Amino acid sequence: MREITLSKAVNEAIAEEMRRDDTVFLMGEDVAEAGTPFKVLSGLVEEFGTERVIDTPISEPGFVGMAVGAAMTGSRPIVDLMFGDFLFLVMDQLCNQAAKTSYMSGGKLNVPMVLRTNLGATRRSAAQHSQSLHALVAHIPGLKVALPSSAFEAKGLMKTAIRDENPVVIFEDKLMYNDKAPVPEEEFLLPFGQANIVRQGRDVTLVATSSMVQVCQKAAELLEKDGISAEIVDPRTIVPLDEDTILDSVRKTSRAVVVDEGHQSFGVTAEIASRIGEKAFYHLDAPVQRMGAMDVPVPFSPALEDLTVPTPEAVAERAGMICRGELVHAA
Amino acid sequence: MAARNATRNASRNTSKRATRNNSDAYVRMYRQMVRIRAFEDNANQLYLSAKMPGLTHMYSGQEAVAVGICEALEDSDNITSTHRGHGHCVAKGAEFKQMFCELLGKEEGYCRGKGGSMHIADQSHGNLGANAIVGGSMGIATGAALTAKRLNTGNVAVCFFGDGATAQGLWYEVMNMAALWKLPVIYACENNGYSEYTKTEEIAAGSITARAEAFGIEAFEVDGQDVLAVNDLTTKLVARARKGEGPFFMNLSTYRYHGHHVGDINRDYYRSKDEEAEWKDKRDPITNFGKWLEDEKIMTAEELVALNDEVRADAEAAVQYALEAKYPDGSEVTMHVFHEPA
Questions:
Q1: Which residues of A are tagged catalytic?
Q2: What is the pLDDT of residues B205-242, one digit of tens each?
């Protein structure tokens, strides 16, 4: 199968959907000729013109609000939010307006829009361009949240997001844009709420999202050397969440480490770990472990920044400890 | 560019002898204003008698704004509304029964009881919904206009908001884009002089119309108590917006008869009873338009009374219907979080 970059996969998904459906359009800062700072959208304006690939002023609440209104009236906007950190600017329009419209109107109105943005630290961009804020959005009923972990997921989930009747926030890992993965040439969509078992294993389940899937793949290789067989489950979407696949895996391995790049407290790791604790407790041989980003603003200095996110070595160490029973007896 | 004062022109029009052709429209506008007043009087009673959950924001006094504007629109044109939204909803074509059911949280309400007073939406008449965030719908209205332009539907969007909402930054962002892209949207500022419990002159610097004009948007001042002036101006602006000459801004001076909400009863600390009496006695949009209809011999005094009685009876019957209507089943609590395609 051919291999393409995550960036190219997103571009293809959007182009295919724009060709298929005239109501789909793109808007955001520097999406047209510039193709975004990450060049993900390069070439789209040449094919679809400035009527459908719309450069906006630097007015995030304004253009997200407009996307909500456009979506309520028969358009399918894809809004480009240049950095995930800018979500804080658009909270009212996303969480009070887009997320609640279907419910508040008793299902009479709906908002089929996609907000594509990114997450991920270690790009030396400091505290306001490095956050992973997907848990914040996932907390709000009415928003779907997709976290592609490779070019394959990026394409399949984006196409599904564009066809969804609800607001979908899709977070791409900005460090992964140039990473290649096998992506079929023929059309495909990936369903929401269906986790992927990235790697089969017997001894421990690593539940990993987005950027942390690669980290856990490397961790699994390290664990293999110690004779520990790790299974990796990638939920692909956290809203809806495929709880069954996660629980089935944990019931099989009897141990779990949940790894996610959002801040550890009150986030995705907490949610998934608590569900495992509630629903698979009697299958567990060790306390469920959580590994998120440290609860600090992302520091600039590489010497500090690299300490804040889970690494393959750290994941392997933690998983090894619960497999050896060290943490069970530690308390 | 000075804001155009539309009132003078429109007053000239209203002093013109009414022709048979537009008599129907005049009577309809009068009826719609009476319907709004009757709706609000009943909603207020529901609150005072503790029959309504929560509270609500009365539109009474501002009827000429909603009616004058909505009378110039088609069903397919969109409006976005505010927390003080019952008037817009009635004026855009909504029915009493479904509205009262919504206010009381009943299954037959426009939103199956999930929205309540501050979120009534009536998609069948293009009403994209009331909004409980001040200024929260400015992006939505502008986005509806973007759809209209992109998909060439010929629709116009009207964004209703109050003077308090002019303090929200969102307005300036979306006006900028609406002006850049010549979107068919009309920003209608219902300037009732008060931002909740504070005089707007205490929180608004400079001129509100100048703010729109700074983006190259044509701005108009109009007497929001004169339904014909409002309708005349809106009709012209809607026609121009459909031709791609938008966006536009209207500053409509009007008055809120009640407090910020139904529970805001002792309000001497921010406005005087004399001021309230002055507006109610001399500038009431319904009384004054009724007199005009009589003077122009479009309706007799008896016909006006009969119309009022009929509307009041309708409203009371709808209230009774809503009081007896059933609540949604508990199973509905998890429905509509996500839209399920039919």
A1: 60, 129
A2: 999 999 999 999 999 999 999 999 999 999 999 999 99
Q: Compute how many other C-beta atoms are within 10 angstroms of the C-beta atom of residue B191.
A: 25
Asked whether the beta carbons of residue B146 and residue A165 sit closer than 8 angstroms, the reply is no
What sign has the CA pseudo-torsion B219, B260, B127, B134?
A: positive
Q: Is B76 within 8 Å of chain A by CB?
A: no
User: Domain limits of chain B?
Assistant: 4-15+36-328
Question: Taking the model in full, what pTM does it have?
Answer: 0.95
8 Å CB contact of A103 and B114 = yes
Q: Of all helices (H) and strands (E), which one includes residue A292?
A: strand A289-293
A147-187 per-position pLDDT tens digit: 999 999 999 999 999 999 999 999 999 999 999 999 999 99
> Which residue among B121, B145, B337 sits closest to A142, beta carbon to beta carbon?
B337
Contacting B with CB below 8 Å, chain A residues are: 22-23, 25, 51-52, 56-57, 59, 61-75, 77, 92-93, 96-97, 101-112, 141-142, 144, 165-166
Domain with CATH 3.40.50.970 in chain A: 3-182
DSSP string, B261-289: STT----TTTS-HHHHHHHHHH--HHHHH
Q: Indicate whether this complex's ipTM tops 0.90.
A: yes
Q: Do B339 and A23 touch (CB under 8 A)?
A: no
Pick the CATH number of A3-182 from 2.102.10.10, 3.40.50.970, 3.50.50.60, 2.60.120.260: 3.40.50.970
Token pair 């899709």 in the structure block, residue:
A170
Residues of A in contact with B155 (CB under 8 A): 73
Alpha-carbon gap, residue A166 to A240, rounded angstroms? 12
d(CA B149, CA B184): 7
The CATH number of domain A196-330 is 3.40.640.10: no
Chain A and chain B share a number of CB contacts under 8 A equal to: 159
- Out of 3.30.450.40, 3.40.630.40, 3.40.50.300, 3.40.50.970, the CATH code matching B4-15+36-328 is 3.40.50.970
Taking CB atoms and an 8 Å limit, are A104 and B119 in contact across chains?
yes
